Amino acid sequence: MGPVRLTARQEDLAIAAAGLLGGLLLLAFRAYDARPGLPVWAVALPLAAMAALETVRRRWTVWTVCLGGALFGAAVYLGSLTATLLMYTDLLYAATLYGPVRMSKVLQLTGAAATLVLSALTWRYGSVPGALLVAVFCGLIFLAPVWTADLLRRHRDRAETERLRAEQTALLAELDRRGAVVAERARMARGLHDVIANHLSAIAIHATGAQAVARRQHRAPDEPLVEALAVIRENSVQGLAEMRRMIGLLREAVPEEPYAAPRLAAVDVLLDQARAAGRDAGLWFEAEESGERGELSAPLELAAYRIVQESLTNAVKHAAPGPVRLRIRYGEGELAISVESAYRAGEGRPVPGAKAGLVGMGERAQLLGGELTAGPRGDTWTVRAVLPRTAGGERA
Fold it and tell me: What is the pTM assigned to this prediction?
């Protein structure tokens, strides 16, 4: 348990209470110098009034110093009580630390003037040693608290200035970082548009033109060539639409419309596309779902969708003729996905970027705290991903 910190108001009240109790204790033991025949209450009145001023030492600095000076003079005249003198020095300290900036100069000038006048009067009507003692006493009462508070105020103001400068530097650094991120996103968007989006557009245009030629030749819609052209056009148009959405996200720091991430409900569309693309290769696709689907988070659905999409695409490109089985199991704490396809060593053909899809699927699973395995098991190539359903398993 840490130390108890008082508020400014509580601190002022504590100082006033300590000064008042200390003064009353000195009065009880008659530890004060008063005029002969003067009652105790005459010494106690300046003490109580000074303690009352301590309660407003931060709010009304000018008034507390002025009234405190009058009470200090009365206390010295009626009876010198140490507690009253110490509370007056605290009023000077508080006025310099919390009052207007010019308060320090005013108090230093008035304190120095009072010290010189009282020392000169003591020297004139007394002795030199007495004048020196009065000068030291007045310096401790009038000047020492002011100098101390002025030094602390300068350090406080300097620290505040440095803090503001550090915040400004951090803000400028954050603005520079954001500007660099925005510039990099714009550069990436230009690169994606100039390279990938243009190629996808060309593929879609050529596929549409080839379909038109096939229709002019009166080819049947179910001919393999016509079906292949339709699959090419559909996939290129869909890829182009997703690419344009990603380019829009990269170009906009704050997108006007939220990005609609693909979800597992669209797996049937992926299966239809895979069936159309793999028919000539002797592939047929089967899907099975088990368990209670329930509510899934958007990052989990996106990762699962992309893993299924990449696995089906790899099966179309590399699998040997035979069945491709997709299984999705919704467990209480995890989502399991497996894709099995026929495999023979040496099947398929190497393509640019081979195995990059497996790496991407593994990274998606790891970001969610899951795991992914892919590889041959006898004559079957199996991709298996296990993703946690709970939010605690997400690390991205």
Answer: 0.52
